[in-house]
Specification:
This is Ferritin-like domain-containing protein. This protein is mainly α. The chain has a single domain, classed as Ferritin, core subunit, four-helix bundle (Ferritin). The protein contains six helices and five strands; from the N terminus they run βαβββαααααβ. A three-stranded mixed sheet has the order 3-4-5, with no helix packed on it. It has a two-stranded antiparallel sheet with strand order 1-2. A hairpin with a 2-residue loop joins strand 3 and strand 4. The chain is globular. The two termini are 30 Å apart. The relative contact order is 0.17.
């Protein structure tokens, strides 16, 4: 069955008075109407001692749920940052984190609406933990933001080849371009005026962003995720 949904940015609380490339990047995603076609419901639950464990699913549904999990994590992190800015934060850093917060919430809500419109197999709201993050410390917050943004870019790049629907691939390409801007901005805050935005740790010998397999991404991001899930199709269990 074909299911069509329309997602708009109406009601989003973006401060359009600040004209910076990050803000424009978020709006550029536009939350344009997206037709989700041919996604089959694919409920697959495993069991643990604490009850059922959600499986992300197969095909495009699995990839969308995977992206949704990562966007939930980033949105949750930046929500915590902006709700209690670290002491001594500059106006530039405050604006940057506020922009990133808005972007990630838009990304998260977009995936939730898109997947809900296509299938009943939608990842539930996850719970997160930050055992090694001190939200009152600038260096700790920036280091975590850097790790999350770099991981997000590599995750989208690595999962792109598993997307079969061209419309999904276009959306993923738009979102990863915004995530790359996030990563660049964070790196510039940490080391202003440097070339860290395209450092050897994130750019390969061919001048391309790194791409990592879902299994490798979950090994890194899993340290923040309290809610268990599997993605059996990609060897994550």
């Amino acid at each position: 069955m074909k299911k069509t949904i329309n997602v708009s940015n109406q009601g989003a609380t973006l401060d359009t008075g600040r004209r910076n490339f990050l803000k424009l990047g978020g709006i550029g995603l536009a939350m344009a109407g997206l037709t989700l076609i041919g996604c089959d419901d694919d409920n697959d639950f495993g069991m643990t001692d604490n009850g059922p464990v959600f499986d992300l699913g197969t095909g495009d549904v699995g990839v969308l749920n995977y992206a949704y999990a990562l966007e939930q994590l980033e949105a949750d992190f930046y929500t915590k940052v902006v709700n209690n800015f670290y002491s001594g934060i500059s106006s530039v850093e405050r604006d940057l984190f506020t922009d990133l917060y808005h972007h990630e919430v838009i990304h998260r809500d977009f995936f939730k609406a898109a997947i809900t419109g296509a299938t009943t197999n939608i990842l539930p709201t996850l719970e997160f933990k930050y055992p090694n993050v001190n939200f009152n410390d600038r260096n700790s917050v920036l280091a975590t933001a850097k790790a999350l943004e770099d991981t997000g870019v590599a995750a989208y790049n690595g999962a792109g080849k598993y997307i079969t629907n061209a419309a999904y691939l276009v959306i993923a390409g738009k979102i990863v371009s915004v995530e790359a801007r996030h990563a660049s901005a964070i790196r510039n805050i940490i080391n202003p005026g440097s070339t860290d935005f395209s450092g050897d740790d994130v750019i390969d010998a061919n001048g391309l962003d790194l791409a990592k397999e879902p299994k490798d991404i979950v090994m890194v991001a899993g340290g923040f995720i309290k809610t268990p899930f599997t993605w059996k199709e990609r060897g994550i269990s």
